[in-house]
Amino acid sequence: MKPLIVLAHGAGAGQTHPFMQAWAAHLRTFAHVVPFEYAYMERPGRRPPDRLPRLLIRHREVVDEAVAAHPGVPLVLVGKSMGSRVGCHLATALGGAVRGLVCLGYPLKGRTTLRDAVLRELTTPVLFVQGTRDPLCPLDLLAEVRPTMQAPSELHVVDGGDHSLMLRKRDLKAAGTTQDAVDAVAMQAVRDWVTALIGG
Asked: Which long-range contacts (CB under 8 A, 24 or more apart) does 177-184 make?
C-alpha cells in the first residue's frame, strides 16, 4: 500500500521553491503526497512565520483533510526545517495516527535554546536527513540527543551538505559528483526508510 505523505515547507520558502518541488516529485514516485502552505505564506510582503500554535493548527487541518481523503492509508509526515519541527509536535499530539516522520534539516539549534524537548517526547519513528555543514543541527549535538529519545531514530548524513543539504561547488568537484546525484542518494534513503517502516 502506498503511504500518505503530508509535506511541509520551511520558514523561508514555500512549496514553489525548487527544493520542495524536487522532493515532492520524488515522494510521488512511491506515495500519495499532499504538499501545503502555512497560512502566513499567503500574506503580502515580508512574511515572518506564525508562532507554533498557529502553525500546528494549519498543519493539523491539512493532515485531517488528507487522512479523510485517504482512509486507512499509513500516514507519514515529511518536513523541511521548520516544517519538520512542527511535524514533530503534531506527531506527539496525534500519537499512533502518524506512522513516521522524516526531518529534512531538523532545526535543532534555536536562537537561544536547543529544540530537543519535542524530540524527547516523540514516540513516532523518525528519520533525520542532515548535512554535515548545517549550523542549525550540528551532528555532535544531534548525537547527544538521539540516545535520550523514546522514539526509534535513524540518521542519513549528507557529507558536506548545508541546512538545505546543498554541497559547495568545490566539494562536489573534489568528490567527482553532482548535487543531483547527492540528492538522489538522500531521496533513495528516505524511500527505503518509509517503505521498510510501512512494510511495503
From this structure: 182/158, 183/22
Rounded to whole angstroms, the Cα distance separating 177 from 45 reads 38
Instruction: Kindly report, residue by residue over 136-178, the tens digit of the pLDDT.
Output: 999 999 999 999 999 999 999 999 999 999 999 999 999 999 9
User: What pLDDT digit, counting tens, does each position of 60-115 carry?
Assistant: 999 999 999 999 999 999 999 999 999 999 999 998 999 999 999 999 998 788 89
Please report how the helices 82-94 and 52-69 are oriented relative to each other, as an axis angle in degrees rounded to 10. 70
The three cell numbers locating residue 79: 518536513
Architecture of domain 4-198: 3-Layer(aba) Sandwich (3.40)
